[in-house]
Amino acid sequence: MMTNTIYSQLLAATQQQRKQFAVLIDPDKMSKQGLISLIEKALMAKVDLFLVGGSLIVKDRLAELIGQIKRRCTIPVVLFPGSISQIEEQADALLFLSLISGRNPELLIGQQVLAAPLLKQMDLEVISTGYMIVDGGRPTTASYISHSLPIPHDKPPIAACTAMAGELLGMKLIYLDTGSGAKQSVSLEMVKMVKKSINIPLIVGGGIRSPQAATQLCEAGADIIVVGTAIEEDTERMFALSEAIHSLNLQM
């Protein structure tokens, strides 16, 4: 296995209180021409990371899509897999997700057992990640596919204790997510409480549509902001979102 170069970068940024912006790409929703345009804009907007994957992928385009990204830019590509079928060695790293907010054994450890022997043979950085689904105001693909109840939006202590358990179990990242297309993002109070409870980088995604929302989440404690649906709807949003997130780094 290769050294944790991507994780080292994420950890260093967190320790230096540098906020980072990740764009989530769903292979099913991205045409070849659309991807080319997205990459060009991401470079201009100084996007820090691409996350690639989703709860459910129907089209077999993952390898092709990652290959295109790698040929056109140096923005790191990190897999955000919804299943064992979403593993691709061309990527720079993979979030080895365990759904610690749920009680579905298949997503706590079952799929991970199946994926482990494949990953051990690959030259792919694997980053253990405690994944937590939070209620975002309506059912999402993530909660449906996972057969898991989300953490209630107004229960920060549950999220904080779950995140603490994830860190004590050896997770290197905690990911709070209300899911693609959520009506609302994770509450600021929940982000604050989770951040105070852990010493590892905190990723927040789902329902983030405005620069103001991204800024508030960063100020509450998010280290990495992930946006997918809002950028699928309008790629121009990348510029304002990236500027808002990165402008906080200038204030440090």
Provide the fold topology.
Blueprint: H1 5-15, E1 20-25, H2 32-45, E2 49-52, H3 62-72, E3 77-79, E4 93-99, H4 105-120, E5 125-133, H5 141-146, H6 156-168, E6 173-177, H7 188-197, E7 202-205, H8 211-220, E8 224-227, H9 229-233, H10 237-250
Parallel strand pairs: 1-2, 1-8, 2-3, 3-4, 4-5, 5-6, 6-7, 7-8
Helix pairs in contact: 2-3, 2-10, 6-7, 8-10
Please give a structural write-up.
By secondary structure, the chain is an alpha/beta fold. The protein has one domain (5-9, 20-250): FMN-linked oxidoreductases (TIM Barrel, Alpha-Beta Barrel), CATH 3.20.20. Helices cover 44% and strands 17% of the residues. The protein contains ten helices and eight strands. It has an eight-stranded parallel barrel, surrounded by seven helices. Helix 2 (32-45) crosses helix 3, helix 2 runs parallel beside helix 10 (237-250) and helix 6 runs parallel beside helix 7 (188-197). It is globular. It starts with a helix and ends with a helix.
